[in-house]
Specification:
The complex is a heterodimer of chains A (249) and B (324).
Chain A: E1 2-6, E2 9-11, E3 18-19, E4 26-27, E5 33-35, H1 37-51, E6 59-65, H2 71-80, E7 84-88, H3 95-105, E8 113-117, H4 128-135, E9 140-150, E10 153-160, E11 163-169, E12 173-177, H5 190-196, E13 201-204, E14 213-219, E15 228-230, H6 236-245
Parallel strand pairs in A: 1-6, 1-8, 6-7, 7-13, 8-12, 9-12
Antiparallel strand pairs in A: 2-5, 3-4, 9-10, 10-11
Helix pairs in contact in A: 2-5, 3-4
Chain B: E1 3-6, H1 16-32, E2 36-41, H2 46-54, E3 59-63, H3 73-87, E4 91-95, H4 98-111, E5 114-119, E6 125-126, E7 129-135, E8 140-146, E9 151-155, E10 170-173, E11 185-192, E12 204-208, H5 219-228, E13 231-234, H6 236-240, E14 261-265, H7 271-274, E15 282-287, H8 294-297, E16 300-303, H9 306-323
Helix pairs in contact in B: 3-4, 5-9
Classes of the chains: A alpha/beta (249), B alpha/beta (324).
The complex binds flavin-adenine dinucleotide (FAD) and adenosine monophosphate.
């Protein structure tokens, strides 16, 4: 079996977001780039599965659609333990565009399990994984909080309100993962970093594809009114404010 | 032309989030001079379907097929795409539930319809069709243009509200004719708690952080939740330490919630925590540290020790509840 993990290259989640003067874009100069946190957890789970599979999982590949600037992030994924990497050399425009690029690049490849995250932490699109499954005409399971390999079957937990379902998809399939998929993301070891330099990172040229959405303008969040302080010895005032001022109780 | 709204049911019932997207869809339909049509998949009684009319749906398509009792992304997406074609809808609206995340992107590809997830208000412009959404977990807002003839949007919960319309909905059965071979996932078991207020449905959430000091101190917090009919939540380190179950973890890597009232007890207000709660209508914070970042996000604050403040809050809220 082979596993593919789709990785979105995003600004570090603690980045202060600045806009360009004309507000037509986010100013990404001097930003620290990271593996999208969900994708990092997906990769961690893929590696755990490989290690405990007794050789059944031959390979974990990471894939991104991104320009040359995404390479350090892919090297980090290789340092964490992925066997090889593929980069489609294009600036991602929207999920519809990205999914077409990945589907095209995988035309002649076979992966049994394709992992995507529930959302990219930059544009919060929540779309790519399920769009990819549709372009590839594969089954998909979303809200996946665990994956187990059981003989020739794969079983996943899907979160539902108040609990979860165990789902068995036909293979190959796309799993869109969320909280629970792995405990802590793995960090690269010194040895991993050394080895990553020599691991294959294939660059493929993009296909003709279009985007259906476009971000045209940005605004900073509206400034919030200052927090009203209530004395700890007079909590009745809080109850009163919530009732008469905020009108929510 | 029409606006199609996919209203997901939960064991045959609709929730507030469904009424909100119908209200929202009805408003967009009015702007476009067309009808708001709701689509229901599954076994829902007519009385329940009729309710959607109260929020502005003029027609409800009811598709009841027992193979749809559990979610199969492909089958659901095929049914919704067929309903879109059947109604000639040019705007398709979803809630932002897990089911929507599983299905809407597939509908988007099937219909070559641009999709924007987590829209925070009415379209700013109908031509080009432009909608607002949060990006970077609320650190900025963006206007997004959807360029395709059919547009798919999901509405972030509590960003429009529920509005009643004095209309009656016509209920129409719909048959999507889905082939058995479409179903490629099988649910083999279900684990589900019943009777608890679900975090994602709760109007009020009482949440504890590391400032609670240990799992043994949660009694008064649970008491407050009970007095207010609230759900309980926690910060990530609290669930990581095993003080509370993982299902209670809110934030960027946990659940995203949008209650009317979020009470943060002993939570510092880290950016990743706030990412999951900043859509709450009102935030109350109790913290010993006046410099804690949570006070930047809160509407009301108390500087104090949770162990001392909580019993007083419980008394005051209990008194209020008894009198109101
Ligand atoms: C990629 C990433 C994702 C993350 N995702 C999440 C997430 O989804 N959700 C999340 O919550 N965190 C998340 N975190 C962690 C986050 O950065 C913070 O570490 C975490 O939210 C802190 O939790 P806390 O406020 O409970 O604890 P602390 O930061 O330790 O704060 C405890 C607070 O309690 C106060 N306090 C102490 N004693 C008392 C007392 N007796 N009475 C009242 N107040 C008291 C202190 O002043 C302090 O402000 C994430 C981090 C990363 C890097
Ligand atoms: N440019 C990209 N290259 C590869 N995978 C991506 C890319 N963008 C998004 N993804 C994958 O799709 C998931 C959801 O992303 P999004 O739809 O952008 O919120 C991410 O967690 C990644 O797994």
């Amino acid at each position: 079996m082979k596993i593919l993990v789709c990785i979105s290259n995003v600004p570090d989640t603690t980045t202060k977001i600045k806009l360009t003067a004309d507000q037509s874009a986010v100013d990404l100069a001097n930003v620290q780039w990271i593996i999208n946190p969900w994708d990092e957890l997906a990769l961690t789970r893929a590696l755990e599965l490989k290690e405990t599979s007794g050789g059944k999982i031959e390979k974990v590949t990471v894939m991104t659609v991104g320009t040359q600037s995404a390479e350090p992030t892919m090297r980090k994924a290789l340092a964490i333990g992925a066997d090889d990497a593929i980069r489609v050399n294009a600036e991602p425009q929207d999920a519809y565009f990205t999914a077409q690029q990945i589907a095209h690049a995988l035309k002649d490849e076979h992966y049994d399990i394709i992992l995507c995250g529930i959302e990219s932490s930059d544009y919060n699109g929540s779309a790519m994984g399920n769009m990819l499954s549709e372009f590839m005409e594969l089954p998909a399971v979303s809200s996946v909080s665990n994956i187990e390999i059981d003989g020739d079957q794969v079983k996943v937990n899907r979160e539902i309100p108040g609990g979860y379902e165990v789902v068995e998809p036909e293979l190959p399939f796309v799993a869109v993962v969320q909280k629970g998929i792995a405990k802590e993301p793995r960090i690269p070891s010194m040895r991993g970093i050394m080895m990553a330099r020599r691991k294959p990172l294939k660059v493929v040229e993009p296909a003709e594809a279009e985007a259906l959405t476009e971000f045209v303008r940005y605004e900073p969040p509206k400034p919030k009114a200052a927090c009203k302080m209530v004395d700890a010895d007079n909590v009745e005032e809080l109850v009163e404010l919530l009732h008469n001022e905020a009108k929510i109780i | 032309m029409s606006v199609l709204i996919y209203t997901e049911n939960f064991d045959g019932k609709f929730k507030k989030a469904n009424f909100e997207i119908v209200s929202y869809g009805a408003e967009i339909a009015q702007q476009l001079g067309t009808d708001a049509i709701a689509l229901s998949i599954g076994n829902v009684a007519d009385d329940e379907l009729k309710q959607l009319g109260t929020y502005g749906a003029t027609k409800v398509l009811s598709f009841n097929d027992e193979r749809f009792a559990t979610l199969d992304n492909q089958a659901y997406a095929t049914a919704i795409a067929r309903a879109t074609e059947h109604t000639g809808a040019n705007v398709v609206i979803f809630s932002n539930s897990n089911t929507s995340k599983a299905v809407a992107p597939r509908v988007s590809v099937k219909l070559k319809a641009g999709m924007v997830f987590g829209v925070t208000g009415l379209p700013k412009n109908l031509d080009p069709f432009t909608v607002p959404k949060k990006v970077f977990h609320g650190k900025a807002f963006a206007d997004v243009v959807i360029k395709s003839p059919v547009k798919i949007i999901s509405l972030a919960q509590n960003s429009f509200g529920v509005t009643e319309h004095p209309s009656e909905a016509v209920i129409e059965t719909f048959a999507a004719d889905i082939d058995d071979s479409t179903f490629k996932t099988k649910v083999i078991s279900v684990e589900k708690a019943t009777g608890k207020v679900l975090l994602t449905d709760a109007e009020i959430i009482v949440s504890g952080g590391r400032g609670m000091k240990g799992p043994e101190n949660w009694k008064p917090l649970e008491e407050l939740a009970e007095i207010l009919g609230a759900a309980t939540a926690c910060s990530r380190p609290v669930s990581d330490e095993g003080w509370r179950p993982h299902s209670e973890h809110v934030g960027q890597t946990g659940k995203i919630v949008a209650p009317n009232l979020y009470i943060a007890l002993g939570i510092s207000g880290a950016i990743q925590h706030l990412a999951g709660v900043s859509s709450s209508k009102v935030i109350v914070a109790v913290n010993t540290d006046p410099e804690a970042p949570v006070f930047q996000a809160a509407d009301y604050g108390i500087i104090g020790d949770v162990q001392k403040v909580l019993p007083k809050l419980n008394e005051a809220f209990r008194k209020f509840k008894a009198e109101n």
